[in-house]
Specification:
Blueprint: E1 11-13, H1 14-19, H2 23-43, H3 49-52, H4 54-71, H5 76-126, E2 131-134, E3 144-147
Antiparallel strand pairs: 1-3, 2-3
Helix pairs in contact: 2-5, 4-5
Length: 170
């Protein structure tokens, strides 16, 4: 076992970090790193979906705004527009934004679960040893750990909503 001579918040390769730990701890952390890598591979296709949905978001916001104006139309000129749009068109205009929100939520649900599981693995296994694991962003790249002070690592701050069940918020 060798001692790392790096300062806190420095990036080091995973293998270098594991070499500084006892063999049994290093094996446990390596297994956790492989688990985090597997989680990352499951959701890599969803990363960046926000950029892909930028244009549909703005279009659906504009459709929603036009739909609201047509829905609350009371003047003669706007009543004609509402008549031309029709009830089906009004439903399409007002429904575009909620449908996009549901689609986004559906697409990122696995990413949210995977990110939470990776965070828990980091908090429970890597942070007590003074590191945070980051999987390689691209194939062939070296996974890294960022050295942190284990005493200053993430401490959960309970909130009043921790006792509320998820379904009860809505």
């Amino acid at each position: 076992m060798t001692e790392l001579t790096t300062a806190a918040s420095e990036r080091v390769p995973l293998a270098t970090f594991l070499a500084t730990l006892p063999t049994d701890v290093a094996a446990q952390l390596k297994a956790q790193a492989e688990r985090i890598d597997a989680l990352e591979r499951q959701v890599v296709g969803v990363r960046g979906i926000e950029n892909q949905l930028k244009v549909p978001f703005f279009v659906s916001v504009a459709m929603f705004a036009v739909g609201l104006v047509a829905f609350f139309a009371s003047g003669r000129d706007l009543t004609l527009v509402r008549t031309l749009i029709g009830e089906v068109g009004l439903c399409l205009l007002l429904g575009a934004l909620p449908v996009l929100a549901i689609y986004y939520t559906f697409k990122v649900r696995h990413r949210t679960r995977a990110d939470q599981a990776a965070f828990e693995a980091n908090r429970n296994h890597f942070m007590p040893h003074g590191a945070i694991y980051f999987p390689a962003a691209e194939p062939g790249r070296t996974p890294i750990v960022v050295l942190v002070d284990p005493d200053k690592a993430y401490q959960a701050k309970p909130s009043k909503n921790d006792k509320v069940k998820a379904g009860w918020i809505w």
